[in-house]
Amino acid sequence: MAKNVVVIGAQWGDEGKGKIVDWLAEETAGVVRFQGGHNAGHTLVVGGKKTVLRLIPSGILHEKLDCFIGSGVVVSPEALMGEIDELNAAGVKKVEGRLKIAPTATLILPYHIALDQAREASRGSGKIGTTGRGIGPAYEDKVARRAVRMVDLFDTEKLLPKLQANVEYYNVQLQYLHQAEPVKLEDVLAVIEKYAGRIKPMITDVSRTLYEKNQKGEKLLFEGAQGTLLDIDYGTYPFVTSSNCLAGAASAGAGVPPQMLDYVLGIVKAYTTRVGSGPFPTELFDDIGAGLAERGHEFGSVTGRARRCGWFDAAALKRSIQVNGITGMCITKLDVMDGIDEIKICVGYTLADGSTTDILPFGADAVAGCTPVYETLPGWKESTFGATEFSQLPANAQAYLKRIEEVCGAPIAIVSTGPDRAETILLQHPFA
Ligand code: GDP
Ligand code: IMO
Ligand code: MG
Predict the structure, then answer these.
(1) Are 419 and 14 in contact (CB under 8 A)?
(2) How far apart are alpha carbons 148 and 132 in whole angstroms?
(3) Average pLDDT over residues 335-360
(4) Whose CA is closest to atom 20 on ligand 2?
(5) CA distance linking residue 33 with residue 47, whole number of Å
(6) Region 12-16 average pLDDT
(7) Residue 420: helix, strand or coil by DSSP?
(8) pLDDT for 169-228, tens place per residue?
(9) Sequence-distant (≥ 6) Cβ neighbours of residue 185 within 8 angstroms
(10) How far is the centre of ligand 1, averaged over its atoms, from the C-alpha of 41 (Å)?
């Protein structure tokens, strides 16, 4: 029996991770974010009521659950507190009491945001299309060993010189490389003074707490952000985010042994989307793509940007399945495919030299050289929206799902047919 499940995005993010984490969280003792920051936007719909979470784990609506932010997450104090306040205002109980943050998590401070935005402006048409939330610079600080971590907030003697040095370091880049406004030390200190007192009670030895819960046989759910094709190592580099978004990152980012990760649930949209720049072999520029965007409401939950849409890419999925060790897939947004006459699945690529491959290569340049090889399947006219049983799906929708399983080589455990928690078909429970 699986005690712990890792949920990861298997494409370029926004696959519907939040919905499924919320749905699976019910029977667990805790939900853990292990990487990324408030670049994530995870949408939960319960009884028609929508909640968008950015940093807080998608288990928070279950009021008996603890939620954990592990060391691998980069945390903006302002974004965190803004989100807590929104949840409090929405009537969610004891959010601050149930949220535990690792002392070694890295902070996102105003200079990270300023540099992220200044760099993007300087890149012009070569921009990565970041969320502008300071994610990249914060991870750089961590690796460069100059990060301000949660635990540093309470050692004021050491904190001030550290902040002074960082402000100086960032201002050199802002002013001289990007002709941007420098950041003021007092503005950085003001953020810390405003929020440190509220953060302090939430700081917990997350690694130990999770270990102990596991020892007691309690179930845990690890919630990935972004998606495998945005992974810093295995994605379409440099058009990626700045963390590892793979299932394996749950171990390092939460501080738990890899043996604790029993089941990897890959969240897979029934088509493909991408937000921001970078290659996307199956992207559609026609009415079908526009239809997917419209029916799927494909606008970013964080930045409101339009998401690019395209056909399902099984060759990219094959890569995801291999690097994550996906035990089962959850196919989301099947309902958005309703009404399309003919559906295409990308099963491989033709490369510039005329050779073919059945798996997505690494890095933006290699992916940009991939021309999809498609298989065509008949679509369906009936509505799948809200279906809760596989047998309710039209025969062609069932055939589409079966073909995805065959080409990708992993079983489908869950199918999602609408944004609401209830609009879900269970085939094989990940915790069973
Ligand atoms: P995440 O970042 O992976 O959590 O995904 P997002 O929340 O950014 O984007 C997924 C969007 O699709 C959200 O607006 C969800 O409410 C919505 N959604 C999730 N599953 C389904 C589904 O099966 N059908 C439809 N129509 N919408 C869905
Ligand atoms: P969730 O968790 C989709 C993309 C950005 C940009 C690139 C780098 O909701 O699936 P960053 O700000 O991280 O440095 O931006 O990564 N990106 C996402 N795209 N969903 C996300 O999160 C994303 N988080 C970052 O659009 O292309
Ligand atoms: Mg999202």
Answers:
(1) no
(2) 19
(3) 97
(4) 13
(5) 24
(6) 98
(7) strand
(8) 999 999 999 999 999 999 999 999 999 999 999 999 999 999 999 999 999 999 999 999
(9) 163, 164, 167
(10) 10
Evaluate if residue 303 carries a pLDDT over 80: no
The dihedral region occupied by 304, where left means phi > 0, alpha psi between -120 and 50, and beta the remainder, is left
374-428 pLDDT, tens digit per residue, is 999 999 999 999 999 999 999 999 999 999 999 999 999 999 999 999 999 999 9
Mean pLDDT of 237-264: 98
Place of tokens 């939620």: 67
Per-residue tokens: 80: 């965190």
Tokens read off for 423 = 């609009």
Which tokens is 101 given? Answer: 């943050």
* Contacting residues for 287 by C-beta, under 8 A, at least 6 apart: none
Cβ of 332 below 6 Å from ligand 2: no
Binding residues: 13-19, 39-43, 131, 145, 226, 241, 301-307, 333-335, 416-418
Give the helix ranges, DSSP H, for 129-278. 135-143, 156-172, 185-199, 206-215, 249-254
Burial of 283 (C-beta count, 10 Å sphere; 0-12/13-18/19+)? middle
Identity of the residue numbered 82? G
What pLDDT, in 10s, does the model give residues 415-424?
999 999 999 9
pTM for the whole structure: 0.98
List phi, psi (to 5°) of 204. Answer: -145, 150
The answer on pLDDT for 301 being more than 80 is: no
Domains of the chain listed by start with CATH number: 5-102+203-260 (3.40.440.10), 106-199 (1.10.300.10), 266-426 (3.90.170.10)
CB under 6 Å to ligand 1: residues?
A: 9, 13-19, 41-43, 45, 297, 301, 332-333, 335-336, 416-419
Tens-digit pLDDT profile for residues 76-122? 999 999 999 999 999 999 999 999 999 999 999 999 999 999 999 99
In a 10 Å sphere around its CB, with 0-12 CB exposed, 13-18 middle and 19+ buried, how is residue 173 labelled? middle
